[in-house]
Design a protein that fits this description.
This protein is an alpha/beta fold. The chain folds into two domains: 30 residues; 299 residues, 3-Layer(aba) Sandwich (Rossmann fold), CATH 3.40.50. Helix content is 49%, strand content 14%. The longest helix has 28 residues. 39% of the residues are buried.
């Protein structure tokens, strides 16, 4: 091979490598929102999650799942306000692959049908999630229910309304009387909601509010996150006003005494969105609950402490299943 051939080979190889590198750089600088979507797609693929749709009477649910029902109970995971099913990817990473996991987009969020405010109240979301559970036949045997923030509120009310379907449950910083609810009670100005950022600076502020751990996020990614959310901000405002309204605000508190399933509560001690004292309120109503308070952790527990969260959930599921098995043997 001549020197010229070697030079040509390097040029061809360099050009071949340059194309994906340039495409990545262009995406990062010009289309960060597209890069974020690819990122989630890659994570789901790497973790073995598949995306599916469930249709029921003209209403469509979007969800991801991994594994099949087995010896351990299936796990249904409900995300928080303005988030989506991929919120759970960080936790799924640390859960055994043989477990049957289902992560659903909450009503109106991401790939799930967007209708009207009747479906956005806590009670409305509970009805829709039950519709989803029945559609995919998840309730053929009792399952473990996990919910964070708004999803935790929904999960708690769900367990109270459909006790026979739940074998155990985990509530992570379930929402209730948040700082912003108190602010709204004394003000008619509702457009500037800190949980609905419209600029990269506001997005960064939201991360600071929700997370005790400080993440360094590039400006382009912050812009991409804003771009992804911006078309849905009107919807997010509608949902926010529903869940902080009188009908939904105390839904979990009003239903706590009806929960019969073994309950685990996980909360970040430095939560600035929903005060950690909520864990004490739950434990007083349901004294048999297991409460795990995480040091140096804010509201975004699944993002700040994914490994610890997965470990706690799995330990609780195994403990409750072993307890049920022991009860059967002794009876």
């Amino acid at each position: 091979m001549s020197d010229l051939d070697v030079v040509n080979l390097f040029i061809i190889a360099g050009g071949t490598l340059a194309i994906p590198i340039l495409a990545f750089v262009a995406s990062f600088l010009l289309w960060p929102s597209a890069l974020i979507k690819v990122y989630y797609w890659y994570w789901r693929r790497t973790l073995g999650l598949q995306v599916r749709y469930a249709d029921c009477g003209g209403y469509r649910f979007c969800y991801s799942y991994r594994g099949k029902p087995g010896m351990r109970p299936s796990i249904l995971m409900l995300h928080g306000f303005s988030a989506h099913k991929d919120t759970w990817l960080t936790v799924v990473k640390y859960l055994p692959k043989h477990l049957h996991l289902v992560c659903v987009d909450m009503p109106g969020h991401e790939g799930t049908t967007r209708t009207n405010t009747e479906d956005y109240s806590i009670q409305g979301q509970v009805r829709r999630i039950h519709q989803f559970v029945e559609t995919i036949r998840l309730n053929r045997k009792p399952f473990h229910l996990v919910g964070t923030s708004m999803g935790g509120n929904v999960a708690g009310v769900y367990a109270a309304c459909y006790p026979s379907e739940i074998c155990s449950m985990t509530l992570i910083c379930p929402d209730g009387q948040s700082l912003y609810v108190r602010d709204l009670e004394h003000s008619n100005y509702t457009l500037n909601i800190p949980l609905i950022p419209t600029t990269p600076e506001e997005m960064e502020d939201m991360f600071r509010l929700c997370s005790h751990v400080r993440f360094k996020i590039p400006q382009q990614i912050l812009q991409g996150l804003v771009d992804v959310r911006e078309p849905h901000n009107t919807f997010y405002q509608e949902v926010f006003m529903e869940i902080v309204g009188e009908k939904s605000r105390y839904a979990l508190q009003d239903h706590l005494h009806l929960i019969t399933a073994p309950l685990q509560v996980i909360w970040g001690k430095q939560d600035q969105v929903v005060d950690v004292s909520g864990a004490t309120v739950i434990a007083e109503v349901l004294p048999g609950s297991r409460v795990d308070l995480l040091e140096n952790c804010g509201h975004s527990v699944v993002m700040e402490r994914p490994s610890r969260t997965a470990k706690l959930i799995l330990e609780f599921i195994v403990l409750q299943q072993d307890a049920r098995g022991g009860t059967k043997k002794s009876s």
